[in-house]
Amino acid sequence: MAPTTPAKPTKRKRVPITIGQRKALRKHHAEYPSLKQTSLAVWFEEQFGHRPSPATISESLSVKFKELDDPTQHFKSSSTKLRKEHWQELEIALLTWRQRFGAEDTITTDLLREVANGFWNKLLVYQRKELPDFNNGWLDKFGKRQDKKHGESGAVDDSAVLDQLIAVRSIIAQYRPEDVYNCDETGLVWNSTLEKALSTQKKAETKPLNSQITALFTCNSTGTDKPPPWFIGNTIKPRAFGRNRVIPSHLECVYKHNGKAWMTGWIFREYLQWFDDYIGQSKPGKEVLLLIDNFSGHVAAVEALDLAQSSLKHIKIEWLPSNIASKYQPLDQGIIKAYKSQYKRRWLYYMLDEYGAGRNPHETMDILKAIKWSLTAWNMVTPQTIADCWYRSTLIARPDDLLRPPVPSQPAQTIECIAEVSALLTELKKRRRIKKAMSVEAFLNPVDELVFDRSVASDDLVDDIASQLNPLDQHQVEDGGEESSEPETPVPIQDVLEALPKIRLLIEQQEKPDPLDLGLLHQLDCFESRLHKRKYAAAGRPR
């Protein structure tokens, strides 16, 4: 019998180790530095199903992969090579620039490289980092990645818009009306000078007009949920807050800032994460739909979340039809106008009161009053107004369209408020505070308050888009437009207690009191009780 040849041992198939696995191995070794390679190999096999060689373990723990320990560096976990994630912020900036620049056929590789260099120097995340050469291979791959992900840009024709609209409506139909939301920004010049037509105002006396803020409002389609609004000013802590000893977080809103008081991708990214948490707490276990337009700050924020793999757990984002989003955006169908009419009415009453007391309202007005009035004005926008504006957008159909009269072109509460605004403007003219009467529409919606895509209108796209992506400037502390930084004396509790009976008496003496005023009486009683407890608790404390 011929001798048998021994079988060759089966060669173990080599399984490549990924960047994510190397990172986990380094972290485990950092937590248990005394472990030998054998123990590390056993742990690795338990975690990932295969055992790395001693050489692979040594390489993974070497200086070569030290960057994996840096939480600010981003690498593709599934890759087997140490490659960074394509410079996330730079790719977002280049994509936004390409979308806003248009004229795709004129964008050459050299032009794209020049723009990439500009962004690298302006984006704070790359400060003190060596400028890459941005070779043709990287630029070509960037273009192919974005074309594949987003499609070629181009003009949107009517049929494409209709297709988008049908698609959006079909997605909305999958949600309950109370779970469909819209958010949008508006500008507000809170110290409006009525087109600089005040006859008593001298140029030397006017204050610097850095009195613009951006307001971001959110509401659902039934008007039953209005999350706290966001306000964006141009300073981290306006003097009015410190002077009045007011803590911004105690107001029913969120205050953010940047140098130009406008919405940026950085702030909108924070908003999306905040709104996701808000829904998680207010509607646990639910997913809601959030409709937004393709404003460049919105696009940059969503791109940043995608690239950072930061998923939103409770909200799904849906884009409104491109280029004509305002035509279908519910907040643009009269909701923001209802807020503006309420705010501007309050501003006109304030002007009359201040002039009557011999004071210049433009000198006594501040951003704190503007935010408080804005909160009051937003709270006064009724659910019916909001629901009607959603119906007017055509995104949601009324369940009983055949039984109800058509949706009014303007909410009833806005019509009433605008009539009052018109009367107040006339009164200011009679008192010779306005040289020339303006239209109510121009007063409610001045050009200065329009929110437009600055990355489209600006001559320097790189600067504007970089400002969308850079973190907030933490060095801007105070605005220079307010007259005094002296802190207000805290209001004595006893003064408030003495004023409450007068407020009650005012309500009780009305022949036909407003139901809302009557409801306030009970709240005043509760408030007075709390003040008494606070007063005597403070009196009993040892000095």
TrEMBL record:
Residues 469-492 are annotated as: Disordered. Residues 78-152 form the HTH CENPB-type domain. One of its GO terms (molecular function) is DNA binding. Gene3D superfamilies: Homeodomain-like. GO terms for cellular component: nucleus. The keyword Cell membrane does not apply. Keywords: DNA-binding. PANTHER family: PROTEIN PDC2, TRANSPOSON. This is HTH CENPB-type domain-containing protein. It comes from Claviceps purpurea (strain 20.1) (Ergot fungus).
